[in-house]
Batch of 4 targets.
Target 1
Amino acid sequence: MIDNKKMCEIIEAMAEKIQAQKDFLTELDNEIGDGDHGINMARGFGAVKEKLPGMADKDIGAILKEVGMTLVSTVGGASGPLYGTAFMKAGMACKGMAEIDGQQFLTAFSAAVAGIKQRGKSEEGEKTMLDALCPAERAIAEALNEGATLKEALGKAVDAAEDGLVHTKDIIATKGRASYLGERSLGHQDPGATSSLLLLQVIEAAL
Ligand code: ADP
Ligand code: MG
């Protein structure tokens, strides 16, 4: 179960993790992109963190929606609209809810992933954040189906996202800036898949 207070804690911890990993994310993006992923994410989540005090009394849907809108409006790169859409779609799935259980989390997570695919015109296997998020979504669904708690399910999601992230080294980018490199994108892990793993780790740790 995640209530609105816990959700605000998770968002704050996400902002801290992104800030702490800013240089690492930027280094990864230097290799196959334009070297701004950490900067973009830190700017976006920095703005989100400033808005957190005003979110404390809102329901989960409203919190996630505001996070998404803030990311869209403060992040210049591709990742801003994509993560922003993800949080907004998750927010719509949790509209008016003061707390969410495992199945509701999964519904929101699936809506987020579907939103990224739609907005990015992308699919799993193109060396993007989806290569961490899609395996994570499947892992959560499978674990909940087998009766796992939400925390246990998130543990499986983190494992699946880690495997997915490692796999991004073995595939050629066909979406985003890294796609300009073609085969030269091989051997490098995707920055967006890396930030997605970090965010999942934060959720798991907070539960
Ligand atoms: P930009 O590419 O505009 O510089 P960032 O560096 O912040 O933006 O983000 C790059 C990340 O965004 C990539 O590593 C990838 O995971 C993700 N990304 C880019 N394009 C897409 C897309 N069409 N669908 C899903 N994810 C994408
Ligand atoms: Mg970039």
Target 2
Amino acid sequence: MLYPIDTASRVVLDLSGLWKFTIDEEVNEIDVDQPLPTSESVAVPAAFNDQAVSQKIREHTGFVWYERNFTIARALCDERLVLRFGSATHQAWVYINGKLATEHKGGFTPFEVEINDFLVPGVNRLTVRLSNILDHTTLPVGNYSETKDKNGKIVRNVDENFDFFNYAGLQRPVKIYSTPHNYIDDVVIVPDVDLQKGQANVNVSIKTGGLFDEVRVTIKDEDGNEVAQATGTQTSVMINDIKLWQPLNAYLYTAKIEGIKNNKVEDVYEEAFGVRKIEVKNGKFLINGQSFYFKGFGKHEDTFIRGRGLDEAYNVHDLNLMKDMGANSFRTSHYPYSEEMMRLCDREGIVVIDETPAVGIMAAFNFDVSILEKGGDFNDDTWELMNTSEAHEQVIRELIDRDKNHPSVVMWSIANEAATYSTGSREYFEPLFNLARELDPQNRPLTNVTIMMATPKTDKCDDLYDVIALNRYYGWYVKNGDLETAEEQTRQELLEWQKKYPEKPIMYTEYGADTVAGFHSAYGEPFSEEFQEEYYRMNHKVFDEIPNFVGEQLWNFADFQTKFGIMRVQGNKKGVFTRAREPKMVARYLSERWNGIPHLGYKK
Ligand code: GCB
């Protein structure tokens, strides 16, 4: 799906700003033919939860309503008009002037609908009903229950099967864009790079709506100079003397696509792309033929007041903090991030592991590896309880469709910490891995980010992963505070993986320790800033001994909000930065380490 941009043939109207808002108490039915009966305001894009200063609203589970009016200028009325949501969390029903225009399930991917037939002259009313319910059919997974209060009213409850706050609402931009009635619908760009010759054969496939006599593709360099041209909807162009997209040294070409009818350019769209080659071989992760070492973070879209709402100032600031520390990459833990962030990463040369919202596919959360050590088949009911295949398939389709052209995306993460050690996991995952391989036009590597219980002995799906990605908490959830034993356990497990799969690169996608900013300890006690640093030093010592260990993405970039629970005080404190992005003590050590490790060619 194309990102909406202004071009010579397209206009984008941004519906960000203040909308009307109400939670649905499910007492009186909301009549979509009437204006929403509320005087509450909410800002879009942002989660609704923290805006209201009301516990009832913040913790509301069920349905909420958004509404605003819009007017289409006369000059655009004859164009094709498309209403597009960057996301709507987690399920949306969209009404225009009281008529249902579209529905969408899944809270982190865009969707759109042509609205011409719904419009009236003058002021139009856009109403959105949203659900933030998560259950065993959705991604992420929630444990859903319903009770009745003393008046017989339904009380809905979601116990999140994951460790982040269930922010919801219209958290990404809502836009209307125009196109001519003959239009460019999608563009797929696949650069086939010959590193020796310094050339790339760039395959460009274009999907159109309506009819063109001809479709023209012009490739421009960063200075706007034309470097190649071709015609056709399935075409390829050769670029000589290529400038590669490199980590932290991005170069973006632009494909200008023109749909021509009666010798007139009717529609124009421009898509930026990078020329780069990703390979996994001999235990290495290669970018442009050189071994890449991942240095960075698991993150969250999580800021004060906005929740998971898009904040481009935070995005720019976060990437600048990363660059300052010598980091080069992050994972979109635990859901697809905004398109604006993906475009920024393309521009900045930040390397991204792009993750689906498949988190919580596990019946019982546990870090206790010992229960598996008895051998034999292990069944924790996950694959009987969970019914997420359909949602998983849908989101793999939508994510790859959305992000397929981004040079920053170097690998897909199919899930975070699913019960891949449990009987039934293989039957669940194999078709999903096959689907992702079939769908990605750039054939990127795939991984599943594994929980501690998925070891070389117990993981039933590990042969499907191109890269072994490990979330490990030796010294924190296991052997808390005992870094000596943790070091041994870390070493032993990494060596076991390397032995089992000598050709697969191994990386950490999570490791960390909750740390209260300002808490110090002469004894390196857990939760102190000293412990956080010692914990990372221990891990890094082991990483550097393992030849096929190709990356360290720690948990987490910043402290973030979670649900309440005895394990969390004002959220998860594993940040290297506080939620306000102030560095904890460990940031200096990490900065020294990472600035000393080259992005490419560290472990040859
Ligand atoms: C994990 C999860 C992550 C949690 C983290 C923690 O394994 O993937 O979502 O936040 O552990 O801090 O417990």
Target 3
Amino acid sequence: MRNDVKTLVEIKSQPAVWQQCLNDLQAADLRRLADGHSPLEVEWVFIGCGTSFYLAQAAAFSFTSLLNTGTRAVPASEVLLSPELVFPRGAKSYYPVLISRSGHTSEVLQVAEILRAQQVPFLAVTCDGRELVSMTDFVLKMRVEEESTVMTSSFTSMLLGLQYLGAALASNHGFMEALQQLPKHLDRLLDTYDEQVAELAQQPFEDIAVLGQGPLYPIASESALKVMESSSTFAQFFHTLEFRHGPKSIAGPATLIGGLISESGYDAESAVLLEMKELGSQIFVVTNTADELLRKQADLLIELNLPVPELARLVMYVVWGQLLGSYRGLEKGLNPDHPRNLSRVVTI
Ligand code: F1P
């Protein structure tokens, strides 16, 4: 069954897809996509829906870190329903970045129309293109052909594209080179851990929560969304240390707690996961390198061992939630290629 699940094939095709996108990025004139803005003179507002909203959040963290500039991430619906809260000084003081795999999502196109009516330049980031690419002069289009309903390689490829853009605007050549190393490491990690994730997915968890801090919070959000979309299993996401403030009441033998643990916050974040283990939960940990205690306690530990800056590891953290969602769906007798109630694009 697994081999003909298109979503799984696309998840495991990410090393090759990333390599193709990184080759394209290396050859592109990315600086023009800033529309002449000095990255520091405007606030970059990243806008998307669903998976693309979590991508917007991860991109905002990345731009703040790489460019030390003001950024925000908002769902497209917020721009439509509360524009004065999103653009308090008027849209012209910002550089909006509209993110949409399809380029066809109604809410995103409606935002694009508003910006065009106000003559506000914006950047479009997409895979399929569709109407969105005809609405602006500034387009970052990733060469990703993704047929599945849920977003997997499109999410990681557009995030790589935006991180690469941020590094190019910062003239941070070391970071761009670091991203170039990721495809070969993902190949290695998929060979090592794919089967272990499939085994974990066979356990009858009732509650799933995925935790992450800082730039890993949107990655935790996307990981939980993949589990929800691909297996119709309710999954929540929290800032790691926030989990103690109430949500930990769900911790127990029928709960799986996923921890996306950073290097910079390792001690504080791993302590939360160990506490949940003591409360009887199973813990699934992704981190760059673990200490002996976490190695001993984790029910599934994925050590990335990536010799790159912490921010360049971001895309590598989401792959395991992508796999867990699809494997969990198969375990429940569902088909991840046709997720319940979902369509590939939301048009309203
Ligand atoms: C956004 C989106 C996806 C979701 C599903 C429906 O699509 O909401 O996040 O997983 O595929 O569409 P897009 O605007 O990025 O094409």
Target 4
Amino acid sequence: MKLLRRTLVAAAAAATLTMSFAALAQDIKPRLIRFGYGLNEQSNQGRASKVFADAVEKASGGKMKIRVVGASALGSDVQMQQALMGGAQEMMVGSTATLVGITKEMALWDTPFLISNAKEADILLDGPIGEKIKSKLEEKGLVGLVYWENGFRNLTNSKRPVTKMEDLDGVKLRVMQNNIYLDSFKMLGANAVPMAFSELFSALETNTVDGQENPYNTILSSKFYEVQKYLTVTNHVYSPWIMMVSKKYWDQLSKDEQKVLMDAARISRDYERKDTRDEASRAIADLRAKGMQVNELGVGEASRMRNKLTRVYAQIGANVGMDLWIQTQNELMRIRGQK
Ligand code: KDG
């Protein structure tokens, strides 16, 4: 009888020890978070993703590790958005433009000529309007952390310099998978072709499309200058990126772990904006040195395009809701009224 009792006590002790080791192992086993993005590792998006990963690992003492995966290796923006909503992937950074099918208010950021400079961008995106739009993601299974800067978008093509609106006639122009971009460039006379970013370089290389529009940083980092001769400075839209977490994953995290991600996201946002702006300030010279022919629009052509494009404003106002649209216009007037 004594032997049986001793055996049972020893078994219980061994089981307890095993559980505590398992618990300990669970405690020290780092959380591995997959973070996907679409541009390549050498891009502004790639550099900032690494800053984010380093900040998370440092703040968590190694208990949270970000595995950054670039070049659309985890899928296009749209595919990664679906993976986050389903809980199959933890994080991503990508375009707000491809989110309008999920959260219609994201269309505000597609508005041509809405934002004129970095100050307006940062105040709008980081203020109540950007927060309000970000919060709408949660009902769709996404948690928006911060906005990064994709930048002011400019036009490239392989056929001719675009100095006036009519030069766009018949140009097969790739646009993001987003109706505002599609309708806007159709209005300007281009043959607009919606396409995922991951397919763009080869489509330009094979002349499947003649042109595209993206910030200078992307034109540089994606080497579009190798397959595009002409760059026209239009600055037609200020385009943000947004960093998101799967809500299914976010809800499993402790408040401390959520704070680690949010604090690191803010660190990466501030780094990314500065890095992107520094790189963009040198871009025209760099792109000319790479052989691109750069031109401004002819006098009056920018306002002709702007007047043509304002016809999408009514569509955007309807998409995002007139309250948000009016709030945005008022906020921009307030910002522009500041000295
Ligand atoms: O994955 C790349 C996208 O996040 C971003 O670059 C979107 O500007 C964009 C484009 O043209 O697709």
